[in-house]
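agent> call fold_tool(seq_1)
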Amino acid sequence: MKPAIVTDVEGTTSAIDFVKSVLFPYARRRMADFVRARADDPAVQAVLDEVRRAAGADLSLEACLAQLDAWAAADAKVTPLKTLQGMIWAEGYAEGALEGHVYPDAAAVLRRWRAAGHPLYVYSSGSVQAQKLLFAHSSEGDLAPLFSGHFDTTVGGKKDPQSYRRIAERLEGAGAPWFLSDMPEELAAAQAAGWRVVQLRRPGEAQPPGPWPQAEDFYGVDAVLAAEGSR
């Protein structure tokens, strides 16, 4: 079996602008009405209970909504917000109001890697549900069957090497896994955990370069893997 390849989403498989300018505003605009209309739904009640635990107070429904909106405004990486966003996006995708953006090069190379025997995974700060929705309803078709698993911040923060050690215990594949991301701090954490890494530096979205292989797209990543004997 070939090494596992784990990919980030924003700035890697998908445009940062799609998440920032489409998905986040869509969820924020609908959040209050969505929660009020489903306040008796056990899944929504569970989100509200998490908000109260995070706040350390028995907040009213409206106070919970205010806290969720504040988190959304700050792009906070907190589980109840991410869970609720995923629920709202699921409705949007089902209604055809949303289509997940995936770069054509990412879709083409992910398909090639899967066909060649690489186990593929996603690790993103977006919830597992949000990841699955984006790839299942993508601009490049249904990519969900390509992936063997998904990870989010419930395994730990993306800048913490321990998160990558936890993930590595659950991966298939031979040898050290690969992690693909645009963010130097995430790549440094993965490298510290013994992973091999490639930085995506897409034109117009590029983060500062780090001391590791870099590529402008997934074709460039494929060339790095080939040079390392991992393709």
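agent> call fold_tool(seq_2)
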Amino acid sequence: MTPELTALIMAALFLLGAVMVVAGGLGFMRSNLVLMETRSRLAQGVVFAAAAFMFVAGIGVHFTGSSNTAFLKGQMQSASQCELEGEAAHPDARGGKTGVIGRHIVSCMSASGFQWSQDEARCREAPVASNAYCYQPAAWFDRAIVTAQLAFD
């Protein structure tokens, strides 16, 4: 998902959620400005639940796609940083078949909180240590967010 699309979806869901919270609140206060003829608690609850869902969904889109949170983008940056460190630490092994730089990248990513995993399809296409898609965050929350991001990527 592109940053522009993420921002548009986030803004739309946030606005819709705010409108629905106001509508649900007015319905609960029995002013009936929004629900007009309907005085059913069920109808009011549905409006309020839908508002809460839209609000939470908008915030979720923000945190999973925003550039000010790391997650998948941070994983990509960590892989690049580890590759740079590996090449700087072992300049004589560049372009070689020794695998020293690859082992350095894997250990560096492990120290940064990522585990090697070939579960992602883009990793199976190119299972090399410098491929950021071949890692999963060790923390469960980060892993859930990255998995969600990969589903929409």
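agent> summarizing second result for user.
Helices lie at 3-28, 41-65, 71-89, 100-111, 121-125, 140-152. Residues 14 and 119 are 34 Å apart (CA to CA).
agent> awaiting next instruction.
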